Amino acid sequence: MSNFHRKRVLASLNALPLFEAAAFFESFSKAAHSLNVTHGAVSRAVSTLEERLGVPLFYRRNRRVVLTPAGVLLHNATKESLDRLDDAVEKIHRHSVSSPFFVISCEPTLAMRWLLPKLGEFYRLHPELNVDVRMAGGPIDLLSEGCDVAIRRSDFGVPDDYRVTPFAAERAGPVCTAAYFKSIDQDWRKGTRLHSRTRPMAWKDWLSLVEGEKTILQNDSDASLERYFDHFFYALQAAQSGLGMAIGSYPVVQQDIEEGFLIAPWDDELTGHCYQVLSLDRLTPDPRVIALENWLKTLCVLGKDGS
């Protein structure tokens, strides 16, 4: 039998946030100050709950209050319930198409080296949005992670219920500083190759796209020409610091090249991957997502096989 219409045990839920604050601070005065209410309001709320339950919730000790066993039980339940309510309200608010809060999850290297330096333009175009950029890579559950969109490289599967919008075909090739380029007589074979463990095949993939060069690297056993880093970002930073050559991915290195921190003096090739926006596939498209997609497309030109 359904208990949907059952009478709730507590007469009012309004007292619970005041009780929860008093339990947290172990003080009615501090709880009142934190909630911007009077000391009397907190005291009355606690008294109302105690009268309804028929047991004391606090031991009164001068200016301090300490939870009784019944108070501990109610406090744990109250905190869990209020936390779940706050979480639900935040998710509803953030995922509403009319919400000003717009949460973007972006691959760290792309975010730091390309997106963030350009994001001011998006702010100017859409001052009504409060953009929150969170750095993460790989597969993502947008709902559980509280994100509206994710910007990712197309190197993993995407759920069928996601909207996928490519905005840039990826190209890759060696990058270094102008000074380093001169120091190796403009010959990449003489340079130190910088690898990252997050993209361990980057050099071999590039060489496989450049006719006749694959064998050269495979036959090169000079360990002094190889350096390894934990992350793609670190390899690019090492290249920018003049430590060698890294395989730069466009548009990741676009900003660095435009500002002269890196150069790309050798061939770059289409990798077959692209950068794309992932969002929830709604019946009615989210105008905030559409605005982001359109803006990103204006920054990049897709290759023929990037769609």
UniProtKB/TrEMBL annotation:
SUPFAM superfamilies: Periplasmic binding protein-like II, Winged helix' DNA-binding domain. Pfam families: HTH_1, LysR_substrate. Residues 13-68 form the HTH lysR-type domain. Gene3D superfamilies: Periplasmic binding protein-like II, Winged helix-like DNA-binding domain superfamily/Winged helix DNA-binding domain. Keywords: DNA-binding, Transcription, Transcription regulation. PROSITE patterns: HTH_LYSR (PS50931). Transmembrane segments: none annotated. One of its GO terms (molecular function) is sequence-specific DNA binding. It comes from the Bacteria. One of its GO terms (biological process) is DNA-templated transcription. Belongs to the LysR transcriptional regulatory family. This is Glycine cleavage system transcriptional activator. The lineage of its organism: Bacteria, Pseudomonadati, Pseudomonadota, Gammaproteobacteria, Oceanospirillales. The gene is gcvA_6.
